[in-house]
Amino acid sequence: ESGGPRGYDAAKKVKGRKRHFAVDTQGLLLGVLVHAASIQDADSAGELLRRIKPLYNWLRAVFADSIYDRLAVLLACFLLGLTLIVVRRVAGPKGFVLLPRRWVVERTIGWLGRWRRLSKDYEQRPEVAEAMVTLAMIRLMLHRLAHPNRKRLPAP
């Protein structure tokens, strides 16, 4: 298939690829998974957890969106010795609502959104797209170490 695997998610109306992020409580990237949009979110969460658990043995709990409250994710968490904590949306306001723990992931996505290379899917293969996300996060973390008192990162 030319350009690597791509797909279409009819529920989210997304064509192309989806990115899944695992971050710690400070918003630093633990892992990323890029796959065709036709693959369900809950199916790919287990793969991401299997990738990051051997790297981070201290990981005990996983906070997730309600879309990940599925048997496949629960089974993956059980097999890896993780506790799945689902952060549910409260009834009421529509649109963007600041939810506990989930805002950390949204903030990380916002940080990564400043990199033009990540604003669109330029990569041919999902592995290269994952590497680009990792490179952007490495730059962000290095800047934080080098300049601990500066709030903003200069444009790339």
From TrEMBL:
Q: Which GO terms describe its biological process?
A: DNA transposition
UniProt-recorded Gene Ontology molecular function terms? DNA binding; transposase activity
InterPro entries, per the entry:
Transposase_11
| Pfam families in the cross-refs | DDE_Tnp_1
Q: Where is the Transposase IS4-like domain?
A: 4-140
**The keyword Transmembrane is assigned to this record:** yes
The residues that cross the membrane are: 21-39, 67-87
Q: Which UniProt keywords apply?
A: Membrane, Transmembrane, Transmembrane helix
Report the domain of life of the source organism. Bacteria
Protein name (Swiss-Prot/TrEMBL): IS5 family transposase
Organism of origin: Dankookia rubra
